[in-house]
């Protein structure tokens, strides 16, 4: 049944002129397995990976840094910003692990979209920069990184979390 739902989502995505990407069931299996190796790494995987992702995000979009003043972005190694990185990594983990379950994925990303919509200044462009950061950093952390599977699946996740932003 889940396979059917995923394939249906792909067909619907293909029918949408704005979206030519499709996260197939096979793509989702690859991404979930490759992500798992990063997320569960014993050497502080979440914080280390979050630091790499946010460092690249702030290179691509320096203005985005101001959005995180409440969580002590001035010291990216601080407990406050480390906690922010863990929240983001955990949100990403929930979404990526739901790739093969479209209704669950939509519920998770919809909830995160509402959390971001409540934060003035957070934009779709910022999320596109985060997508780029993830696509640049993950190959450095994952053996046999599969760029097609990742770009097919990550795009929909980022779309979902940034849904409703301007
Ligand atoms: C992979 C993409 C991302 C995920 C999974 C994610 C997830 C999260 C989560 C789970 C929270 C905590 C929400 C809460 O407790 O209310 C959060 C907070 C936040 N996110 Fe994201 N986020 C992502 C990308 C971004 C991007 C690209 C931006 C801006 C450019 C952004 C801006 C913020 C801000 C400003 C907060 C609030 C920080 C504070 O507490 O002051 N997020 N995010």
From TrEMBL:
Keywords: Disulfide bond, Heme, Iron, Metal-binding, Oxygen transport, Signal, Transport
Gene Ontology annotations for the cellular component aspect, listed alphabetically: extracellular region; hemoglobin complex
One annotated GO molecular function: iron ion binding
Cleaved signal peptide residues: 1-17
Domain Globin as annotated: residue spans: 22-166
Pfam families in alphabetical order: Globin (PF00042)
Gene3D superfamilies: Globins (1.10.490.10)
PROSITE patterns: GLOBIN (PS01033)
CDD domains reported for this sequence: Mb-like
This protein's record includes keyword Signal: yes
Paired cysteines (S-S): 23-153
Binding-site residues, heme b: 116
Domain of life: Eukaryota
UniProt cross-references to InterPro entries, sorted A to Z: Globin, Globin-like_sf, Globin/Proto, Haemoglobin_extracell, Mb-like_M
Membrane spanning stretches: none
Assigned protein family: Belongs to the globin family.
Name of the protein in its database record: Extracellular globin
Originating organism: Ridgeia piscesae (Tubeworm)
């Amino acid at each position: 049944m889940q396979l059917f739902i995923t394939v249906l989502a792909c067909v619907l995505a293909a029918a949408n002129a704005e979206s030519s990407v499709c996260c197939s069931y096979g793509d989702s299996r690859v991404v979930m397995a490759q992500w798992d190796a990063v997320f569960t790494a014993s050497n502080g995987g979440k914080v280390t990976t979050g630091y790499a992702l946010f460092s690249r995000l702030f290179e691509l979009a320096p203005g985005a840094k101001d959005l995180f003043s409440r969580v002590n972005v001035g010291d990216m190694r601080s407990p406050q910003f480390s906690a922010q990185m863990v929240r983001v990594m955990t949100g990403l983990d929930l979404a990526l692990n739901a790739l093969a379950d479209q209704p669950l994925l939509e519920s998770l990303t919809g909830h995160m979209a509402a959390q971001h919509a409540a934060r003035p200044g957070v934009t779709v462009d910022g999320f596109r920069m985060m997508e780029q950061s993830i696509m640049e950093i993950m190959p450095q952390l994952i053996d046999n990184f599969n760029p097609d599977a990742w770009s097919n699946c990550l795009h929909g996740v980022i779309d979902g979390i940034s849904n409703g932003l301007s």
